Amino acid sequence: MSALKHRLKTTLLGAWARLAWHTPLGKLVDGRTARRLLILYGHCVDDPSLNGELHADMKIGAGQLEEILKALAKRFDLVTISEGMERLQSGAPGRSMVALSMDDGYRDNLLRLVPLLESVGAKATVFLEAGAVVERRLPWLHALGWLDGKLGAEPLAKRLANDLPEVREALLGCASSNRLKRILKYDAEPVARDHVLMELVTEHGGEPREIVDRLYLSLEEARRLAASECIEIGGHTVNHPVLARLRKADQLAEIAGGAKQLRGALEPAQTGAVFAYPYGRAWDFNGGSKEAAAEAAYTYAVTTHDGVNRKGTDPFALKRVPIHGGSKLHRLFAEASGSLELFRGS
Ligand SMILES: [Zn+2]
Fold first, then answer.
1. Longest Cα pair distance anywhere in the chain, in angstroms?
2. Which domain holds residue 313?
């Protein structure tokens, strides 16, 4: 029953979004409701050399992204997240806004995203993982992806069961990549997990540093990215942990530690105002994470909850809508115009 209800709601939302885009309805809602900021989030502008190493839903093609940004720019101002929030909070009148953001710090953000933004006249906020970009350490999720591709989920889970006793039973019954990822993300002890994954990569002929260098911006590239007029740099912790699983002091070490590394390495970069909670769902961060982000001198923090932001939105729980190859322009326009929020009744 709940699956049926969910399907019905999705279908209705899609129909409503089409109506907002193809009829004057969206413009009407945009003009009649309070000024808002839609924040989009993706990971990388499609780069064939990264195929297979990054999930399809982490990529959007350059042509598609350009088309979306150009269409949205006709009706909305394209801004960075902190610019957009400052404008909302000032209470000044003006068009509603769209901010693009990209998480983690992949190489294409400099090589493909920046030229695209320059040609469209758009901006973006890029959130950098300090452990990967500054320290050049391979994040566990990429180690997992590499090993999964090499060994397959089931044999890999069995192999990991030997070394991770607290999740041994769950791993022995695990047959899918998604389930394996969930167990390692939420239930395994992070230090032991990271250690065993790195050892396994090396054992199977992989070179963790080489994988980091292939996927992530080099420090030099990150500096060039930060120096770009169209880019705002944001923080994204050191090790990309599930913050809600950490004590407050450890959350602060991750958030403030990452901020310190970025502010040191990218000087005199445009860094410091915005932070992104890793993973960003309601169960991935908590009140302690919000306090730690404020203590690390951030002004805003973004989640991965769907919706738009207004003047009164909690600045440490800003909403974002995903953008990837499957994204539809009518849907994003409906979000930006406030039409979907109207439908949701929130
Ligand atoms: Zn991330």
1. 61
2. 36-136+216-336
- pLDDT tens digits, 199-244: 999 999 999 999 999 999 999 999 999 999 999 999 999 999 999 9
- The length of the chain in residues reads 346
Residue type, 183: I
132, 138 contact by CB (below 8 A): yes
Q: Is residue 22 part of a domain?
A: no
In a domain, 15, yes or no: no
pLDDT in tens, 105-141: 999 999 999 999 999 999 999 999 999 999 999 999 9
Distance between Cα 108 and ligand 1 center (Å): 15
SS3 helix, strand, coil % of the chain, rounded to 5?
55, 15, 30
Tally of domains within the chain: 2
Whole-number Å distance, alpha carbon 4 to ligand 1 midpoint, is 32
Beta strand spans in 201-308 (E)? 231-235, 274-276, 300-302
Neighbouring residues of the ion ligand 1, judged by CB less than 5 Å: 103-104
- Does residue 81 share a domain with residue 186? no
Please tell me the distance between residue 333's alpha carbon and the centre of ligand 1 in angstroms: 25
